[in-house]
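Worked Example 4.2. Read the sequence first, then its C-alpha cells.
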Amino acid sequence: MKNKKTKPILLIILTIMAITSVIYMKSYKKSTNTMATTITSVANTATGAVPKDNLGFTPQETYDLIANNEVVCIDVRTPMEYSSGHAEGCKLLPISKNNFADEIRALDPSKTYIFICRTQNRATRAVDIARNLGFENAYLSSGGIINWKRSGLPVIKYK
C-alpha cells in the first residue's frame, strides 16, 4: 500500500523540481546577458579595448594593444623584477611605493590602462586602486609576466 501512495507524491516533487530548474535557468541566462551588457558598456573605451571577461586581457591581446598604442601598460613590480624582464612598452610604477595612489591619480583617466605584475596579484590590487580613483578603463594582463613569457612574447631585460 505504501508504494501506491508514494508514487504520486514523488511525481509531484519531481515535477516541482523540474519547473524550478527551468525557471532558474531562464533567470540565470537573463542575468548573464545583463552582466555581459554591463561589462561591455562599462569597458567601452575610446580605443575599443575591451577584455572578454572584465578580468583582463590575454598576454597576446595585451601585446597587440601596446604595439598599436591603444593602451598604457603599467608594470607594478619592483625595479629589480622589472629589470629582470618586462614587456616592451610597459612603464614601471611599483605598487610598493608610498605614493602609488597619487601617481595613479596624476594619470589621464580617459585612457585605457593595463596593469601587469609577476602573477597578477599586485596588478589586481592596482586595478582596484585605479578604479576606486575613477579610472573605469583599468584592466589586468592576465597571468602577469609569467603568463606573458609562457605565451612566448618578448621581454626586455636590463643587466
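Now turn to a second chain, presented in exactly the same format:
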Amino acid sequence: MQRKIDREELEPLATGAWILGTGGGGSPYSSYLGIRKVYDEGGHVDLIDPQDLADDDLVAVVSTMGAPLVFQERMTDPDLAVKPVRMMEDYLGRKFRAVMAIEVGGSNAFQPLLVAAASGLPVVDADAMGRAFPEAQMTSFAIADLAMFPHALADVRDNEVMVARSATWNWMERIRRKVCMEFGSVSATCQAPRTGAEIKNHSIHHTTSRAIALGREVRRARAAHEDPVAATIQAADGQMLFRGKITDVQRRTTEGFLRGTAHLAGLDGDAGATFEVAFQNEYTVGWRDGAVAVTTPDLICLLDSVSGEAIGTESLRYGQRISIVALPSPDIHRTPKGLTHVGPRAFGYDVDYVSVFKGSRGEIRA
C-alpha cells in the first residue's frame, strides 16, 4: 500500500496539520513551500502504510524541535532535514527503509516529506503523537517504554550532535533541549530509530492521511462559503468551547520553548464570559470564567473564526476573533500511564485531566 502523495494534497495537509498542531509544531507554511518546490521541479514523495513495513525494517523518526517563534526565522529545507538522518545511518552502519514524523502537528508533518525528497525514502503514514507535543517523553514510544537513544541533532551551520545514551526519556529531553538552545532554539533531529514491528505496535497510524482529510474538508467548506470551524468540528468529532476575541497575550521564549497565556473576551453566545488558555509551544489548559474547562491531552485548537485556519501560539495577536475547539486525543494518551506523560501535571499544572468528551475518541472522516 505505497502510493504517491499528490501535489493537490499538500495544501490540505498543511491546513489539517496546523489544526492538529494545537498551536505548536511550527507553522507549516515554509515547509509546505519547500516540498511544493520539489513537486514543481518534477519530484514527488511516496506514502506507505505502516502495516506494510517488515518487522525488521528500520524507520527514521524525524522532527524540527525548538521554539515555534524561531521556526518563522529559520526555515527548514530538505538538505537540513536529512542531515541528522545521514548522521544516524553513519552511526548505526545501516540504511533506513522509510521515514516518519514524530508528530503530525504543524511543520513537523512536512519534515519526513522533506527528508523523503532528499533521500528517496517513502514516508510512513503514522506518527508518535497524533497531534503535537513539545517534549521527547510525550510520545507513544515513551509511553510504551521503548528505547530513547541514540538521538541525532543538526543545525543550519555545521554543528552535529549525537546523544549516544541517556538514563531516561526525561534525561534525553533535558540533554537535547540544551543542545537545541545552543543551536539557537531550533534543530533538525533524527530520534531513536524504530523497527517496523515497533511502528506497527506502538505508533499512531494513518495520521498523515487524517490530516489531509481534515484539511480537505476545511478547504471544501471555505470554497462553498460554509463555516470552516463547523467543518472541523464535524470532520474530527470535535466540540466548540468558546467564541471570542483576544484581549491580552503574554508570551516568552525560554529554555527552547514558547510559553505564555492568552486571554479572550466572549462574543456572540459567549458574550460576558472570559476564557484563558495557557501554552508551552502547544495549548495545554483552558479556563472558562476561572474554572478549568479543558486540558491536555484533548487537542485544544484556536481557529480563526472566519477562515477556520489554525492560529499558532507564536501568531496570537490582540483583537483576533477566535473559535476555541476541542478535538479528542488518541486513546493511548487517556490511559493512566499516558496521562503521566501528557496530562496537565506533566506540564506543571496541579489539576486533574478534564475532558469535554465522553466515551470513545472520534476519527476524522475522509
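Notes for the reader: Confidence is low (pLDDT under 50) at residues 360-366. The first helix runs from residue 10 to 20.
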